[in-house]
Description:
By secondary structure, this protein is mainly beta. The protein has one domain (about 5-195). Helices cover about 0% and strands about 45% of the residues. It has one helix and 15 strands. It has a four-stranded antiparallel β-sheet with strand order 1-2-3-4, with no helix packed on it. The longest helix is centred in the N-terminal third of the chain and has 4 residues, at about 5. The protein starts with a helix and ends in a 7-residue tail after the last strand.
Amino acid sequence: MTAYYDVNKPHKEMRSFPFPSGGLLFPNYYDNGNAAYMDTTLSWNELEVQFPSEYCQIDSTGSIHCMKNTGTDFTHFISYDGANTWQNYTYQMGNVSTSIEEWEFQANGELDLFVLNIRYQSSEGPDVDMVYHVRGYSEDMSPDTLTYIGAGDLDSTSGAGNDIRFDFASLAILPDGGVVVAFHDSTDEDPLFAVELELPQY
Length: 202
């Protein structure tokens, strides 16, 4: 495996991820829960492999990460044995969130770093943008930091026809472990990017 898998993760709405032997794997593609594999000849194949979610990524260590959103909770699943067994950790948003607007995740095997970006409708006002960092996920899947981004003073959502539109959570992990994440608040009419410049020392 190479660092390619750490930095070239398709947006989650692609609902597929590149496979080390070439081609793309589509979790939960068939009605029976099996995955689909499109090989390098563009032929489709059914795989008798069950994933906990359709939103997955493989990182440079060969670990498979899947995220499942249920209501306002998120569960991060990791498999180290090719989707045979899974470990998991659940992020519970509790009463702070009334609904999830956008979300995205990414794992970097070389840095042992997992990041979850969530934009949610707050029960106390407009939307809130935040990022969970899980440094050393191979040892402990619980987040070690939670960062709130932007002013959190703008109610925007995805979809055509909305007055204030914010469609896609965009997220990237930089080579030094910093994170770049899209957010939206009243400081600009367009979504902006937040860049993590100072990294915690461990």
